[in-house]
Structures are given as C-alpha cells and as structure tokens.
Amino acid sequence: MKRLLVLLLSLSVLACKSTPGSMPAEDIKELGSVRLQSIQSKIDENRLTEAFQDISFLIRNPDNEISTTQLEDLSTQVLERIVTEFHGKIEQEEYGAALRLYLSLVGIDKADLVPDWSALVLLQRLAEAGYEAGEKTLAFYYAQRALALGAVNEQVLALLLELSREFENATVFDQALMEFQRQGLDLPEDAAGPGVVMPSVDRMVKGTVTIWVDRGIKLERGMGFPDRVIGSGFFIDDRGYLLTNYHVVASEVDPEYEGYSRLYIRLSERVEEKIPAQVVGYDRIFDLALVKAEVDPGFVFSYGGSADLKVGGRIIAIGSPAGLENTVTSGIVSATGRRFLQMGDAIQVDVPINYGNSGGPLLDDNGKLVGIVFAGIEQFEGVNFAIPFDWVERALPRLYEGEEARHPWLGVALQEGDKGLEIIYTVPDSPADRADLREGDIIEALNGISYEKIGDIQSALLDLDYPMLISLRWRRGTETFDGALSLAERPYSPIEESLARDLRENVLLPLFGMKIERTSQFLWRANYTVRRVLPGSIADETGLSKDDPLSIQGWDLDTENRFALLRIYVKKRKSGFLESAVQMAAYLETDIFI
Fold first, then answer.
1. Which of 234, 522, 528, 547 has the fewest CB neighbours in a 10 Å radius?
2. Residue 315: Cβ within 10 Å count
C-alpha cells in the first residue's frame, strides 16, 4: 500500500512539472511589462489617480525593465487626462467634481496646469450655483468655506449677507460686513439696515422637531407592545430638511432590518400631528441622518464656524426627552476632544440627556449652534456627548447627495507618540498598502502639512474626497520617502474590513493593542509570543507585556452589538509566568484609522 502511494505521488509530481516545450519563452512576460500594462489599463479605464500612484511607486522603487522615459510618458498621459476632465466638468458646471480634480493637482504640486483656477474660485462657483438652484444651505456652507480661504468676490459676499440675515446668523453677518469694509466695497442696499441679532431660545425651539419611528408591534412573553423609537431633530433648510442621529432612523435605511418601519415628525407647534418624512442621506460613522418633510419650518438653524468651547462653559440642549416636546435643558461643557467616534472628537456635557434627546441641537450660551446631541448609543449609555458641528458640516454635502455618505481614507491605523504619527497597521490592498507603507513608518506630512494628532489628520482628510491624489511624506528609520497616493472609499468598519482581508492575528494590534507571533502549532492549536504591546491599549491594561507566551482559546465577533471578544491562556511575565485565562473585549468602532 505504501509503495502504491509513493508511486502515485511520484506520478503527480512528474505530471505537474512543465516540459521545455510546454510554454513558449516569448509567452512569458517580464514583470516590468506587466506593470506597464497594468498602469496603461488603469488609464484606459479612467482610474487616473490609481495609475498615478502606481507611477509614483515605480519612481520610488526603480525597475530595471522600465525606463524613466516610459514613466514620464505615462505620467504625462495621466495629467493630460485629469486636466481634460477638469475642463469638461467646468463646462458642464459640475463644480464639485472639478474641485476634486483640482485638489488632486494641488496634492501632487501640479496646480499650474490649470493656472486660471483655484480652490477659492471653485468654492465661489459652488456657492453661486447652489444659490441659483435654491440650495441655500449648501450655498451658505460653500460661501463660508470660500471666505475662510481669502478675499471672495462681491457677489459671494452679498450672498453671505443675504443668507445670514435670512438665517438670523449674526456671526456670519458680521464677518461678511467686515470683509466688505476690508475690501473697500460698497454695501448692498439691503445691508444698510439694522444688523442681525441672535434669535432667542424661544424662537429656536420652533426649528426643532420630535422624530417618531413607528416599528409596529413588538412581542414579549406573548404580549404585544408598541415598538417606537423617539428622537429629536432640527431644521437646517427652509425646504423642510432637518438633521437627526442615524441610530434614531436606522430601521428606515438598514437593509438588514426586515420589520415594519414608518418615519414621522412632530413640529414644536403642532405636537398632535404626525407628519410623514423620509431619510434623504445618512452617515453611520458620524451617526447623522438628513431627513425631509413637506413642511415650512418655523426656524432654520445655521452654522457660523467653530465655537470656542471651554470646559465649564454654559451650553443649552433642545429636544424631546421621553417624547416631551420643546424641552430646553442647560448645563456645562465637561470636556472636549473626547475620542468616542471612529473619526473626529466629541464634546462631553453634563446637560441632562435622556431617551428622545438624540439628534437635538446643542447651543453655547450665546445661542450659537455648536453640535448635535447623541444619546442612546449602547456603548455610551448613561454618558452624555455631542458631535461638534465642525464635523457635521463637512458631511452635509454628502448627506444631500442621498443614500449613505462616504469618506476618503488611506488605509492605515496610527498611534500618537514621541516620534510622531506612527503606522501600527496597514490594511491589505488599501492605498497605503499599495504604496508600501509599513508598520513602524512615521507619517511626516500630508499635502505638505505636518500633523501630531490623529483627529487633526482625519479632519484634513474629511476636507478631501475620493478618488483623489494626495502627497504623503513618511520616514522609515533614517530614510524619508515622498509619494503620491490615491484616496479610496473608507469602509464603515475598518476593523471588519481588515478581518476580511487579513489574518486575524495581524488585526489584534489595531484592535487590542498587541502584536503576536506564532511560535509553534500542533493540530488546530497554535502557540504565540507577544512581540509588542501598545501603551494605554486594552492589552496593556490587561497586564500583557512583550515576550509573554499565549495561546488563543476562543474568538467571537459580535457585529450586531459591535464588539470582539478574545479568550487566551497567557503566562504573564509580570506575574511570574503563572498561566491564567484572560478574556479581552474591544469595540469594533476604533478611532485610529485614516
């Protein structure tokens, strides 16, 4: 029997060996030729930013089979196509798409290819086009962005004055007046009247609503109970658009929800009437939703730029706790810069927040809109937070586009340290992975600007789009690299995306904060050694340290409740290598990916 098995194995090996004449030598393509064909295919398919990233990679990592002339020719092709597409978008008055292409050229220092244009000019065009189309909220947003970049034209300044008066936004009205004076321009006739006064809280209450989501009847122990979700919202558009939290209206858009769901709003002055509404767009990462109802708002909230929130500063929240409409509560800012969202910071407040407050506006003591309350998220239950409107405002254009808002990303997890922003994990097949960014690399600059905080570089990315080119500088040991990367679409859950593309052991570093290495395996059981523990991570708080031997006993991924469990047997060096069973839990919504 053994001889038969050996004979069959030998025959299979011989059959797998290729004979000299089985494949002509001319059919075997050189690696350089394959790379060039891949780049050319991406150009032909209009995947221009990806093609340029590949060219940038080959410039950093020369291939003897590819000449500098060939790379220059391909680079010229890509740039010519981007410039042609840019001018096409301008002719079609698609200024948002044109801005994305322009910022790609800025990112790789090629803005001189379209010398008559700038981000300021394009933002002004977006503001003017939005106003003409009746999209006043977006026009107001783009005009403020333009003003932040420099001297805007007289038409956009007049637009800012008009809209800030209509929205009763004293902050922006004063900014526009100052810019008129700075440029020595004559004020429009309608601006010569009295200034804008911040509206009273009573007036702002008229711009809030109660959100009702009727989910039918819920059965518990044989009894039927009404299944309703109650939240708050506030108008940001005189056409009936309002903001609330995604988790309040999730059953309306979640494809995994199979039950009954109907969305209604109740106006502050018509609390007895349920008005049908629909979700226009939503953002799961920032827990936002844009809702539309066929009503005329009593008041429209608008944003006037970053608020200087101080710990201990007075704040006001408006909402419908337990369905009690028109409830105004006050308190103080407990802390700022809390990292509880995947991206961005949160404001911690001591304002009484209860079930039903989610999605209501947060105001400072001057009545200025500073954030959106979010309450009822399970992992933060009993703790009160608000999303700063700086982050909300960046998501607005994507929310108006409809369906789920998407954001750009590079595909790396970072940690802040003395050396700077260090890469601790690279997601396979992400832009960063294709650019050969590795664990241990230090990001020195994005588009020429250095960042020390993860939140700051996330904020910079939110001002961009995808697909878009950016320049990145990173350090590996004593060597520094510069390259162009093509931003891609950020997945809702980077950890789940990583688990789908990579070995589970590799994802433990961004998830639990420990890097392990397999040392042996017998049948289905593998043994590992801890090679790194990130300071302040879950692994560090559990008492794990470098060189601790361990074995994995169980692994659970609960996507419904959004956490992962890891059960291990470990011999902790700090405990004299006594073996103990340890269970670690981590939320899937980590805040370290860009």
1. 522
2. 24
